Amino acid sequence: MTNNILVFIPTYNEKNNVERLLRQILSLNVIGMDVLFIDDNSPDGTGEVIDALSHKHPGVFALHRKGKLGIGSAHKKGIEWAYKRSYKILITMDSDMTHSPSYIPKLIKKSKEADLVIASRFLSKRSMVGWNYLRTLMSRLSHLMSKSVLGLNYDVSNAYRLYNLQKINSKIFDLVQSDSYSFFYESLYILKQNGVMIVEIPVTLFSRKYGSSKMRLSDIYLHFRNLFILIFRNVFKPAEIKLNA
Q1: At residue 159, what are phi and psi to the nearest 5 degrees?
Q2: Strand 5-11 relative to strand 89-92: parallel, antiparallel, unpaired?
Q3: Could you count the other beta carbons within 10 Å of the beta carbon of residue 67?
Q4: Is the N or C terminus of the chain more exposed, i.e. has fewer CB atoms within 10 Å?
Q5: Which domains does the chain have, with CATH numbers?
Q6: In 3D, which of 187, 20, 162 has the Cα closest to residue 103?
Q7: Integer Cα distance of 56 and 52 in angstroms
Q8: Phi and psi of 50, rounded to 5°?
Q9: Residue 186 CA to chain centroid, in angstroms?
Q10: Separation of alpha carbons 70 and 63, rounded Å
Q11: The pTM is what?
Q12: For 70-125, what is each residue's pLDDT tens digit?
């Protein structure tokens, strides 16, 4: 039997989280689901851990890249890997335990209604438990700007998503330029511009317990710079936004 669902998890210095996360995913006993880790040459030994997990568990795969090439580029690689192996459903999530695997069955159920399902922090009041003030502020500011400037009333920066690959043209992802955190809102905007049906489910995200955040000040700068570049492309270079524009 060929599995149809892939959970993709990019990693960088998450040695203390990946095994715990995988254990929670496997405990769901979702039929026909594989897991893919892609590690960016983590100096803490995460690569060795995911190799061991892939050898121990059938349906768990580990890929390695030469260095820290960007969270967006990791997602592009995971998406490409899923399409090439004919998975029907792709679920993407973070490796730091902020995304609870318990929502995976809900994402799968909701996928019957749409092409893309987003796990949203903005559908309930208390949805970011233990987050510090700065991180909460940045998330809400990004949400506000994307809503007002791009017309995206979704959780644009959350990586916890389900893509219904059967319904999404793989070439749409070739239009996404960002290799950084900007990938998340850029991909969402381009998918919507190409007619992809998007829905959300409410989730609660927890602060990480092990390790530290990978986001840097330069990532925040790129996030907002790329937002305005995306607006420019949409107005002056629509062929970069829409297929067959």
Answers
A1: -80, -10
A2: parallel
A3: 8
A4: N
A5: 5-240 (3.90.550.10)
A6: 162
A7: 6
A8: -70, -30
A9: 12
A10: 15
A11: 0.88
A12: 999 999 999 999 999 999 999 999 999 999 999 999 999 999 999 999 999 888 76
